[in-house]
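REQUEST ID: PR-0412
SUBMITTED BY: lab tech R.K.
PRIORITY: routine
TASK: structure prediction, single protein chain
INPUT:
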Amino acid sequence: MRIWARARASMVACPACGVPSARARSRCDRRLADAAVIGLPIVSPLSVRRLSCYSRDCPARAFAEQAPGLAVPCARRGPAVRGMLEVTGLAVAGRAGARLADLLGLPASRNTLLRLVRAVPGPVSRRGAGGGC
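STATUS: complete
OUTPUT:
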């Protein structure tokens, strides 16, 4: 299943300096994996503009338009898919987790699940905060 998306903002703020820009240089297409519907994986082709920054002092001469809530910069999966794969990896990691994710319509390798589990922040320890024992 495919859902086509396109960002439509007229002005986009530069992430480095914050100066708004509407000067489009080109377009680039991203393919995002999204949450499955009825067990079918969804691929969302997202078309974003590459823009030029107006500020002469800005270190970023060009930047890509972002789609907040839909995609994270440089990611191939949406936040919902990443969250579901993290939970699957925490519950059943490795090959069994990859098989379960495939059944849920979220194909991922065992290495991907293990990488997502390693990236989850651990619980905060209260040891060493107050005094010694």
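NOTES: The helical segments are 79-91, 94-103, 110-119.
REVIEWED BY: pending
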